[in-house]
Amino acid sequence: MTAMPSKELKTPVLIVGCGPVGLTLALDLAIRGIRSTLVERDAGTAVELLAKAGTLNERTMEYCRWLGISDAIANVGFPDDYPRDTVYCTALNGFVLGRDYRPSTNDRVPAPESPEILRKCPQFLFDPLLAKAVQERGMTQILYSTSWLTCTQDADGVTSTLAIGAGGQTIDVRSKYLAGCDGAGSTVRRAAGIGFEGEQLDYSVSAMIEIEHLEDYHPLGRAERYMFIGTEGTWANLTAVDGRALWRLTLVGSEERLAPERLDFDAIMARAMGNGRGGWKVRRVMPWRRSQFTADRFTAGRILLAGDAAHTMSPTGGHGLNTGIGDVSDLGWMLDALLRGWGGGQLPAAYNAERRPVAIRNGTFSTKNYGAWVQAVGRDLVLDDTPEGEAQRRAVGEQMNAMLANEWHSFGVAMGYRYDTSPIVVPDGTPPPPDDPGEYAQTARPGHRAPHAWLADGRSTIDLFGDGFTLLRLGYAGDVTPLTAAAADRGVPLRVVGLDDPAIARLYERRLVLVRPDGMVAWRADSLPDDASALVATVTGNADGETGRAVAG
Predict the structure, then answer these.
(1) How many domains are there within the chain?
(2) Cβ(144)–Cβ(90) under 8 Å?
(3) pLDDT tens across 317-338, in order?
């Protein structure tokens, strides 16, 4: 924590919530040269061992590649030889219903569509890694043991009141923008009068279990996840947290709130083991609510929401954290543009138009995955050591493998989200491709992620994006000065990159492709538009003639 601030504090961006979403936003802004202040009510980062997110999908890892932390994630995450299998069983020493095989990091190569692979990194390691990267940049003031209380906003900024430390000393903070990254119960969201719409799915309880060499106590071999099936259906799952000694045991929820103090997790673990063997230790028990909620808007003037403050979803599929990180990849460059003055007044509306549909999409996929967990099928004989029991176990295993395939393999969810209806994306008239949760086909259609291809120097095309806009010249021999001059007139950072590679030209399908700082295609064509200035105005949120007018600090 930095030194105690004075009674008044000024900062370009005030970020409430020092979890992974808030930290990532601070890091993104720092890389862009924007100062921020982070407010966190806890005394530090990852001060408690929580059963939270641990899957960073390929798209998130591409963003972490730009943030400069992908190698660090690989070094602290799951061991490279750890398989990602899911086993369906009655107990670890019981009957096996089926197995979904997923290779370890050592046995995987990046998909042709991405330079990165999915990584497992528990949040209690991911958050400190982010905090370290933020602190090393020296652009962020982090205020731990500090609560955000309330705010007022006007045309020029937001004034927030904070309470610091046990004594509750209050200070006012003046910021150009306020980012609420403070979780599902977001105080910022409520203070802004933003509704939270959706449904409660159930109540669950998870326990962090420590057990060395779990594979020594059962014959099923190492796996990332064991799902336990009884005559009542799927009743629990045991998931590797760090690929070493920590596991998360989660009871499949109920309509009623579960009372952790009434649960005997030693007895529950004994049922999961199928016998009394195993030297486990219950480290922490945590009740939680499984839900799918989405804020009715992600912005209110200069207040913006990201992560769980803007959306919640079932953890089935691991899309919650990744969706939050996706929010930041969009929000970071927009805040930079607004603060530097080249971003227009339509950018906050564009953020809402782009990210809210993605949250609903990903939450819907996650809820569907959970439905497959608890769907009622014939399971009355799964514990019977009879031919009929074996036949039912085989049928149930095959059914669960089929129903849950999109949970364990959701490449399309990770890579295929699009912003094609955004007001700052210029459509080219081509039809949208299918949005398949499991499969992903690259396209440079406006509003989609700019496709990956390997360059001759060993870099990926995605390594070309991030610092301002990028205009790709793919066989275009004409003059692009009208576009570069229009960008310069507005102070928009734009660089031109020529790629003399027929395969990449075929992949992008047009001779000119304009890519945003977040790696999404803003516009493409075979020639420049008649009015290059209008194009620049549209993609920077200035189509109404407004600009951010603020100065970064």
Answers:
(1) 3
(2) no
(3) 778 899 999 999 999 999 999 9
